[in-house]
TrEMBL record:
PROSITE patterns from the UniProt entry: MFS (PS50850)
Domain Major facilitator superfamily (MFS) profile residues, every copy: 15-465
CDD domains: MFS_MMR_MDR_like
Subcellular localization, as worded in the UniProt entry: Cell membrane
Taxonomic placement: Bacteria, Bacillati, Actinomycetota, Actinomycetes, Kitasatosporales
Membrane topology annotation: Multi-pass membrane protein
Annotated InterPro entries: MFS (IPR011701), MFS_dom (IPR020846), MFS_trans_sf (IPR036259)
Regions crossing the membrane: 15-37, 49-74, 86-107, 113-131, 143-164, 170-188, 209-227, 233-252, 273-296, 308-328, 340-360, 372-393, 405-430, 442-463
Keyword entries, A-Z: Antibiotic resistance, Membrane, Transmembrane, Transmembrane helix
Record's protein name: MFS transporter
Domain of life from the UniProt record: Bacteria
């Protein structure tokens, strides 16, 4: 692992807290605006399409530019780009909170997404650079817990802030709350964040970046806006264009590699033991999780008449279970670690379906449902976190930035496509206003689709358990090779300039 040119006195624990706080801010803004949407519509007199762009503009920019953000970190420095992204995100949040009209708000939300795309990939790269072995697995567990908590906590925080109507500002505090937090993190980053320089001589692969960004844009835009606009013809044309551009991207990357250049996504990254099947399984897990959270919240608010705050609070058990399992799965007997993703998914798939069955008649979200949600969340965390550690724990540190961009893009696209496709399934099965029973039946249909997708995820997870036998859970490629060959396993040091084991 390359030595990190850390500043004297920097400590990995506070650094991890710092970058994960930035990650949390970015995740919070994915869901917090959903709660504020009715207030935005009323205050700014926004049309339905404009309101959808306020919500989706952030997600579209974020998802499309994540790989670009990862490559910027690899070239110009991970700490530097994290700070630039954080500063941009804080400034864009202030602009959103002060936006005088809908058009301004849409533009500032896109700027927020661009800044988040610069900041977020550096979080995983910092973890890859500063932590190794068991410490890396723990750090990835905390990362997973933040990922799980951001969606549910966003609803709770949004509900609290909008309901409080601080100083008559309505929806604006859901954005302005990021400003003091961002300023504190920026100040702390100058003292705590080690200097993790990139490789200024590394190729930028501009053709690859532009092609991939265009392909992702053509994929994400119709998926996000299609249902709201009635799936117009241009949406299907964009999806077809996206497939064509992904093929062009593969050809472009092949030519770059053949010329001895540095492609955006190297074959070394994609060839890391188990990374591709792990990415596929994680994509389906996150699509199911995000899609369920969306449908469950909508069922509670539009079907059962719960407030946004209550809907958020009732979503906490599944998120807490997910986050807790992400942190604690390593304490389970080590002989179970290889099978844990498959075992977890064997519980998650029927767990979602059982929630659908319990609520399919239109009944309230009672203690039994809450218990099933908590167990399902724990099982999802037990599946997701070992898969994530398995995928990135086997990547050579030299490829950490590229692997980080790939995996974070997989996570984000999983959430976007999960909400979009499963939201379409849910809303296609019910038309509001509707009875609680009709809404419950739509939730049952949705959970059945999620269950089927997670059966596929379990199959992919089983493949990862057989891939890369030389790699050990939570270790780098070099460490796995050393362990197999009987040599001393390289250990990091809890000192500036070295990774933490």
């Amino acid at each position: 692992m390359p030595a990190a040119a850390a500043r004297g006195g920097s400590r990995p624990g506070p650094v991890l807290g710092l970058v994960l706080s930035g990650q949390f801010m970015a995740l919070l803004d994915v869901s917090v605006v959903n709660v504020a949407a009715p207030s935005v519509r009323s205050d700014l007199h926004a049309s339905g399409a404009a309101l959808q762009l306020v919500i989706a503009g952030y997600t579209i920019a974020y998802a499309v530019l994540l790989i670009t953000g990862a490559r910027l970190g690899a070239r110009y420095g991970y700490s530097r780009m994290f700070r630039h992204g954080l500063a941009g995100f804080t400034a864009a949040s202030l602009a959103c909170g002060l936006a005088p009209g809908t058009g301004w708000l849409i533009g500032f939300r896109v700027a927020q997404g661009v800044a988040a795309a610069v900041m977020v990939p550096q979080v995983m790269s910092v973890i890859q650079r500063l932590f190794t072995g068991a410490a890396r697995v723990r750090a990835l567990g905390l990362y997973s817990a933040v990922l799980a908590g951001g969606l549910a906590i966003g609803q709770v925080v949004g509900g609290l802030l909008v309901s409080a109507d601080l100083f008559g500002t309505g929806w604006r505090p859901v954005f302005l709350v990021n400003v003091p937090l961002g300023l504190v993190l920026l100040a702390a980053s100058r003292r705590l964040l080690p200097a993790l320089p990139g490789d200024a001589g590394r190729g930028f692969d501009l053709p690859g970046l532009l092609t991939l960004a265009a392909a992702l844009g053509l994929l994400v835009v119709p998926l996000v806006l299609g249902h709201e606009l009635g799936w117009p013809g241009w949406g299907w044309a964009m999806l077809a264009g996206s497939a064509a551009l992904f093929a062009v991207f593969a050809a472009v990357e092949g030519r770059v590699a053949a010329r001895g250049g540095q492609p955006l996504i190297t074959g070394r990254v994609l060839g890391a033991p188990g990374l591709l099947p792990a990415a596929g399984s994680i994509f389906l897990i996150m699509a199911g999780f995000a899609g369920f959270m969306f449908a469950f919240a909508l069922h509670q608010q539009a079907g059962l008449g719960n407030s946004a705050l209550r809907a958020g609070l009732l979503s906490v058990p599944v998120s807490v279970g997910f986050g807790a399992a992400s942190l604690l799965w390593q304490r389970m007997p080590r002989r179970l670690h290889r099978l844990l993703p498959v075992l977890g998914l064997a519980v998650v798939a029927p767990g979602y379906v059982l929630v659908g069955l319990l609520l399919g008649g239109g009944g309230p979200v009672g203690p039994v449902v809450q218990t099933v949600l908590a167990v399902t969340g724990v099982a999802a965390g037990c599946a997701y976190s070992p898969l994530f550690a398995r995928a990135l724990g086997r990547v050579d540190p030299a490829d950490a930035a590229d692997a980080s961009g790939v995996m974070v893009t997989v996570l984000q696209l999983g959430q976007v496509i999960g909400v979009t496709l499963l939201g379409t399934v849910f809303l296609g099965a019910v038309s509001y206003p509707a009875s609680s029973a009709a809404s419950g039946r739509a939730l049952l249909v949705t959970t059945a689709v999620i269950g089927a997708a997670l059966v596929v995820a379990a199959g992919l997870a089983g493949v990862t358990g057989r891939a890369g036998s030389a790699a050990v859970e939570g270790r780098t490629v070099a460490e796995g090779r050393a362990a197999v060959e009987g040599r001393a396993v390289p250990r990091g040091r809890d000192v500036p300039g070295g990774p933490v084991e």
